[in-house]
Amino acid sequence: MERQRIALANQELLHGGDYNPEQWLDRPDILKEDIRMMKKAGVNVATLGVFSWSVLEPQEGDYHLEWLKDIMDRLYENGIRTILATPSGAKPAWLDEKYPEALRTDERGQRRHHGVRHNHCMTSPDFRRKVREINVRLAEHFGKHPGLILWHISNELGGACFCPLCRKKFQEYLSDKFHGDIETLNQAWWTTFWSHRYQRFDQIEPPFANGENSIMGLNLEWKRFTTWNMTDYMKSEIEVFRSLTPQIPVTTNFMKLYPGLDYRRMAKELDVISWDSYPRYHNDYESLYDTCIENAFDHSVMRGMCKDRPFLLMESVPGAVNWHEFNKQKRPGMHKLAAVQAIACGSDSVQYFQWRKSRGSFEQYHGAVVDHLGRDDTRIFREVEQTGQILKKLQPVTKSIVRAQAAILFDWDNRWAIDDMKGLSQQKKQYEKTCLSFYRILARLGVEADIISRRDDMGGYGAVFAPMMYLIEEDTAERLRAYVRGGGQLFATYLAGYVDQNTLCYLGGFPGAGLKELFGAYSEEVDTLYPSDRNGIRFADGSIGEVRDFAEVLRVQDAEILGTYTDDYYAGGAAVTRKKCGNNGGAAWYTGARLDDKAMEKLIARALTEAGIPVSEIPQEVEYHCRENGEYRYHFWLNYGKERVKIPQVSGEDFLAGSCPAQENFVEPMDVRIFLERKNTGKAAGSGMAAIPEMEVMG
Ligand code: GLA
Ligand code: ZN
Q1: SS3 215
Q2: How far is ligand 2, taken at its centre, from the CA of residue 170, in Å?
Q3: Alpha-carbon distance 636 to 394, whole Å?
Q4: Which helix (H) or strand (E) holds 410?
Q5: Residues 529 and 641 in one domain
Q6: Which one of 269, 294, 315, 621 is the catalytic residue?
Q7: 494 and 348, same structural domain?
Q8: Of 177, 265, 216, whose CA–CA distance to 498 is shortest?
Q9: 3-state DSSP: the chain helix, strand, coil percent, rounded to 5?
Q10: Which of 610, 643, 665 is the last residue of a domain?
Q11: Which range of residues forms the domain containing residue 333?
Q12: Cβ of 450: how many Cβ atoms within 10 Å?
C-alpha cells in the first residue's frame, strides 16, 4: 500500500531556486542585496542548505545553525519561503578523515578519495549516523519555522557503491529474495552457463567492471539492489523528519531519466516529486521543438509518479549550464517558454540552479539569476523577472492537474534488461528514444500521455502503448490481458515479452507469459538491419511505411494482418497485427518492426480512434497541454517555431491578456498563449481539444 502523501501547502506557484548564502557570509551587503533582488524578480521560495555541511558542522558535533536561522527569518519576513535541504550531498573533510568507510568504492573495487560530492557509501553505518545527527538538529531547529515548506533530501542521489559493506548487504538481499536457496538463484540466473554456479550466497560479488559482469540476472539484480539500498538510505534520512516534523512534506530532486536508479521505487517514499531539467536548447542536431518535446516527456515521467497532484521543477538554468559539451545561452524568450512548459506539463514551480553565481570553484561559470556582474538589469535577470510576473498571473493554476487519456509504459527494469542484453545492435536499441517517439507522435495528435510503469494501474486509459516491452513477468502479462479484456487498446512492438523478471527467455515463442495468445501472433525471428538497410511495410490502403533497425518475422495464429513486409526473405510475411478480444472492444496490436514516424502515427491514430480518444493535428513546432481542476481548464499553447501559428478556436478567456479570444487566434514565434475555460458552463465550445478539427483516420 502506498503511504498517504503529505501535500505541499503552497497556494501559489513557486518561483525561486538554490540559494547558497553560506558562500557569502562575510558579505552582508550581498546578502541584503539578494533579498531586494529576489523580491524584484518575483521570487517566493529559496532552496537552502544544499552542500552546506562544512559550514553547519565545521567540526564533528560543533553545530552552527544560527546563520541559517537568520537567513530563513529574513527571507520569510520578505515573503520568501524555504525548501530546506539536508547536507548529505557532500561531506566535510573531518568526516571522511575519521570515518573512511563513508567513502564510496567504485566499480573496480577502488575506494575513492575524499572530495567532490555524491561520494558516500549509502550502507556505511557511520555515514548514516552522522547524517542522522545533523538532520535531527535541522528538524529540531527549523521544523516549526513558519517559512519552511518542504524538506529536500540530499541532492541528486545517484551512483552505486561496491565496498565490502555494500557487497555483504547485496548478498543478504539476494539470500532474502531467493529464500536462502542458492539453487533457485542458480536456476534463475542460468549459472551453469560458463560454469558460473554458486554454492553459497557469500560467494556472489557485485558485477565489478573487472569481475563477474557476464550474468544478465546478476547485473539486473545489482541495479535493483542499488535502487533498494539507495531507497533504504533515503528512508533513513526521511525517518527523522517523519517523526520530528510530520506536517512537513519531503522530496528529493531527480535527474531526468537517470539510468542508475529506478525512480518509481524511490517515489513511493516521497510526498512531492521534483526534478532538475537541463535540456540542450538551440543545439545543432535537432529542432527546438524536438529538444522541448523531450523535456515534456521528462516532465511527464515525473507527473506519472504523482498523478493526483503537481510535481515541482526543482532546478533549471536561466542562462547556460557549465557541463554540456557546448554551453549555449538560452535565447531570448526561451526562458519564458521553458517556464510555461513546466507549468503546462503539471509542475507547480519554476526553480533555478542557482540564484547567484559562486565566485570560485567548479560551478563559477554556471548560469544563475544573478551574474558576477551583480546587476538586476541584465537580459537574464529581466527574463526571470518577466517569468515571475507570468507565474503570479498563473497562480490560480496551482494544484490543478493534467489528465491523460493514453499511457506509455516506460520501465527502468526493462531499460536495464534491454541495455544489458547481448544481441541485436547495441547502438540501435534506443529504448528511451523509442518511448519518446511514441510520446512525440501522441503529442502531435493532440493526445496527452502519462508515462507509467508496467506495474501501474492502466484502468483509466483508453489506450496503452508498450514499446519494446522486453521484460514481462507473469503477473504483468495477466494485467495486460485483463486490460484488453476490459476494453483497452494495447499497442505493443517488436521485442515484447522475451524474458521474465530474471531475464530468462520464455520458451515457446515471444511474447511469452501467455501473451502470444493475446496478440494472436508470435515472433519467429528478429532481424537486425545495418544503418543503411531498409525494408518496408505495406498496409491495406496501399501505403508503405519504412522499416529500419529491427524487424521481427511474425507467425500469425488468429490475428488480423494489418501490414506485411515488402522486402527480403520475409517479404509478404506479417509485420503488423491486431487481435480483438472479448465484447468490450478491446484489442491487442502488434508492430513487429521499427517504423518511420509517419507510418507509426497512422497506426497509433487508428488505435486511438478505436479507443474513442479524439485525435487532431497540432500545428508544427507547437506543443499543447491542458491542466484542470473542478472548475476550470487551462489550455496551454507553446510555439517553438519561427513562424506565427494559427491555433484552433477556443472558448474562454485569454489568460495572460485577460481578454476574450478573437475570431482567429495565433501564437507568435517563441511565445505562449493560455486560455482559461470554465467547466460545465453549458457554453458551446466544450474542451479546447474537442474544438480542434478532428483529423481523418483510416478505418
Ligand atoms: C545539478 C545539481 C546542482 C548543480 C546543477 C548544475 O542539478 O543538483 O547542484 O550542480 O546540477 O547544472
Ligand atoms: Zn558501500
Answers
A1: coil
A2: 10
A3: 11
A4: none
A5: no
A6: 315
A7: no
A8: 216
A9: 30, 20, 45
A10: 610
A11: 1-13+273-401
A12: 25
Q: Do the domain assignments include residue 124?
A: no
Q: State the DSSP string of 498-514.
A: -B-TT-PBPSSSBSTTT
DSSP E strand stretches across 388-430? 406-409
- Inside any domain, residue 165: no
Q: Nearest CA to 334 among 8, 97, 670? A: 670
Quick one: cell of 309? 497532484
> Has 315 been annotated as catalytic?
yes
Tell me how many domains the chain contains: 3
Q: Return the SS3 of 105.
A: strand
CA 520 to CA 156: how far, in whole Å? 44
Instruction: Give the ligand whose atoms come closest to the C-alpha of residue 18.
Output: 1
Residue 48's φ and ψ, nearest 5 degrees, are -110, 160
221 belongs to the catalytic site? no
Nine-digit cell at 494? 517488436
Handedness of CA 372, 319, 642, 625 (dihedral sign): negative
- Tell me how far the alpha carbon of residue 353 lies from the centroid of ligand 1, in angstroms: 6
The grid coordinates of residue 408 equal: 506509455
Give buried/exposed letters for 484-514 (b at 16+ CB in 10 A, else e).
Answer: beebbbbbbbbbbbbbbbbbbebeebbbbbb
Kindly give, in sequence order, each residue whose CB lies less than 8 Å from that of residue 576, ignoring residues fewer than 6 positions away.
537, 539, 561, 562, 563, 589, 590, 591, 592, 603
What's the pLDDT at 2?
A: 64
Range in 145-149, 419-423, 551-555, 681-685 the model is least confident about: 681-685
> DSSP alpha helices (H): ranges in 199-313?
216-244, 263-267, 288-303
Which tens digit of pLDDT belongs to each residue from 536-577? Answer: 999 999 999 999 999 999 999 999 999 999 999 999 999 999
Q: Is the CB of 321 under 6 A from ligand 1?
A: yes
Among candidate residues 558, 575, 610, the one where a domain is terminated: 610
Question: Which pLDDT score, from 0 to 100, does residue 658 have?
Answer: 83
Which residues have CB under 8 Å from 586's CB, separation 6+? 483, 484, 485, 486, 487, 488, 489, 490, 580
Q: Is any atom of ligand 1 closer than 6 Å to the C-beta of 278?
A: yes
Tell whether ligand 1 has an atom less than 6 A from the beta carbon of residue 298: no
Judged against a pLDDT cut of 60, whether residue 435 lies above it is answered with: yes
Contact predicate 488/203, CB 8 Å: no
Yes or no: say if 91 and 116 are a contact pair by the CB < 8 Å rule. no
3-state secondary structure (DSSP) of residue 651: coil
Q: Which helix (H) or strand (E) holds 667?
A: strand 665-667
Above 70 in pLDDT, residue 247?
Answer: yes
Ligand 1 atom with least separation from CA of 362: 10
Q: Which one-letter amino acid corresponds to residue 525?
A: E
What is the number of the ligand closest to the CA of 323? 1
Please state the atom number of ligand 1 nearest to the C-alpha of residue 321.
Answer: 12
Measured CA to CA in angstroms, residue 508 lies from 137, 183, 287, 548, 579 at distances of 59, 24, 44, 27, 19
- Which residue has cell 515541482? 312
CATH number of the domain that residue 642 is part of: 2.60.40.1180
Cross-strand pairs, 491: 465, 589
pLDDT digits (tens, 9 = 90+) for 403-419: 999 999 999 999 999 99
In a domain, 27, yes or no: no
Among 22, 57, 156, 221, the one annotated catalytic: 156
Q: Tell me, yes or no, whether 335 and 368 share the same domain.
A: yes
SS3 18: strand
336, amino acid identity: K
* Same-domain pairing of 467 and 497: yes
Mean of per-residue pLDDT scores for the chain = 95
Contact call for residues 565 and 548 (beta carbons, < 8 A): no
- Model confidence pTM above 0.85: yes
Do 47 and 151 contact (CB within 8 A), yes or no? no
Indicate the burial class of 472 (C-beta count within 10 angstroms; 0-12, 13-18, 19 or more): buried
Residue 173 within a domain:
no
